[in-house]
Amino acid sequence: MTASDENPYANGAGTTGSSILPLDDGEMYVCQDGPRDAPALLLIHGSASSTRSWNPVVPLLAAAHRVIRIDLLGHGRSAEPADRDHAVPDQARRVGEALDRLGVEHAVVVGHSSGGAVATALAEHRPRLVTALVLVNTGPGLDALIAPRPTVTGPSQWPPSDEQLRHFASTAVSRAGYRVPEELLDDVRDMTHHAFTAAMSATRSYLERRALPDRLTALGKPLLVLFGEDDRRWRSSSASDYRAVPGAEVELLPGLGHSPMLEDPQRTAARLSAFTATHAVRVD
Could you give the CA distance from residue 123 to residue 160 in angstroms, rounded to a whole number? Predict the structure, then answer.
C-alpha cells in the first residue's frame, strides 16, 4: 500500500498534519485535515479540553472540508499565554491570528461549550473571516448553567486525583456506559491550576457582559445551535433562547449530553456537514 492509498491527501492535495504557530503571546498548536481547496471548517474546543475532543468527528468531515482544530492558549499542546490572560476576546484574537498565518480568509466556525463563546467573539472581532457559526452545547447565558458540585482541588493539591477527574468528566456525557477517553483526562491533568480556573472565569465574565443571543443578533451571521437534550452542565431548555436570533436553526439531540461529538459523532458530523454545505465558502 502506498502513502497515497493510506492518506488521500498525501500527495500535496491536502493539509493533514499538525504544527506549532508562534504568536506574539504564546505558541499555538494546530491540526489540519482534508483537502487544501475545500471549505474551511474551524473547530474550537471547550474549557479544560483540546483538539482531541473533536477526534471522533474529524474523519467524517475531512473528505469535504479543510478541518482546522486549535488548542487555545493554556490548553492541550499550546503554551500558557505570556500575560496569563485567558479572556475570551483575547483567545478569539489569537485564533484569528492563527487563521491568518494559515492563509484562511473565510471559515465556518464551530464552538463546543465555552468554545462557542470564543467562536462568537471571533465573529465579533473578525466578521469577514467568519461566514457562519455553529454552537454545540453552549449555554446562552449564566442563568442556563447547572451549578456543579465542587470536584476540583485548589492549587496546592493540583492536579486532581483520578477519582476527581472521572467525576468531573462524568458530566460531559450522558450515554450509559460511555467512558471519556483517557487522553481527555490528560488534558485536564496537564493544565496549570491557573489556566483551568482562569478559563472558566473568562467565560463567565464574557457571558455576564452580554448574553450570546444578543451578541449573535447584532452579528447577523447564519447560526446553527446543536444541544444534547440530556446535558448535565447547561440546561438544554435554554437552547430556545437562541430562537431570538433571526434565522437561527436550533436542534435538540435526544439521548445525548454535553458532548455530542464524542457520544454520537455520526449524527453530529452529519448535521455539521448539512449546515456547511449551505454556508461555507469554497477556495477558488
Answer: 34
